[in-house]
Amino acid sequence: MKRTNPLPSIAVIGAGLMGRQHARVISTSTQALLAGIVDTDATIANQVAEQFGCPSATSIDGIRDADAVVIATPTATHTSIAMEVIDAGLPLLVEKPIATTLDDTLSVLEHARSNDTPLLCGFVERFNPAIVTLGGLVDETIIHWLSHRHSPRNSRIQTGVAEDLLIHDLDLVLRFWGNSPTMVSASSWISPDSQLEEVVDVSLDFGDGVATLSANRWGQRKVRTLAVYTDSRLYEVDLLRQFITVYRSQRQEGDGASFREETLIDIPFIQHRGEPLSLQLDRFIELIMGADASEEIDSVIGPHLLLNRIADHTATSS
């Protein structure tokens, strides 16, 4: 389809919390236009469309003139919508996870690849300035990676905490390590109220180091932290505040009666170019405008494969 406007127009399918966030960043972008809001609930679609000054529709037929699509509907609907969008030849950004099963995820990715359709998964932490900065700081083998991704209860989420939260950290740890773990162990807690996994703790053995990941959706406050240990440094990362502290132990001494330790503390500068969701949008626009999308599709597979291994382990051990 030939664009009549130099800026790409992007429609958002799903008018829930994440859909509204995507609509917000698109509507305020100077690099794209918000083509419309799609939701099966016409009332909600109209409300959100009115808020952001764009058309509304109740099906994809109402946004055929869009140049690209963001899918922010419940995970169970991702596969059918994504396939329809790919068949329409529209680049798509799909919120994570891509689908409820690994087979469906791989089918969507293969369909996008075979149709030469750009696909970006909503791994928004990739664009967190603290993560981008950390990637430039860590130049040694990682010995231990410790992450906490905790949140208060959220009754609107229809998937377990691994699919909802843990998958972000699976994506990050794979990107930093560069290979898959040789061993996986996991344990989980299923809430008697939600009947979903609300707590998952995972240990990943990479041979040269270990990652310990904790995801909790039954907490009392929002926590997004990392501690990355190498032979000479400890990097503490607050993903919410986008802040990094680097510790280097210099000397330890004691005489039996006392103990003394000297540690250097560095606070690296973090360039804040914008909120992660807006930076993710910038990457999506690059794909819409013709940037090579093959690496993006390849990078989506690993976290979903690992998520499936963890699901198999928790199912076996429960």
UniProtKB/TrEMBL annotation:
InterPro entries: Gfo/Idh/MocA-like_OxRdtase_N, Gfo/Idh/MocA_Oxidoreductases, NAD(P)-bd_dom_sf
Domain Gfo/Idh/MocA-like oxidoreductase N-terminal: 10-120
SUPFAM superfamilies registered for this protein in UniProt: Glyceraldehyde-3-phosphate dehydrogenase-like, C-terminal domain, NAD(P)-binding Rossmann-fold domains
Entries under Pfam families matching the protein: GFO_IDH_MocA
GO MF: nucleotide binding
Protein name: Gfo/Idh/MocA-like oxidoreductase N-terminal domain-containing protein
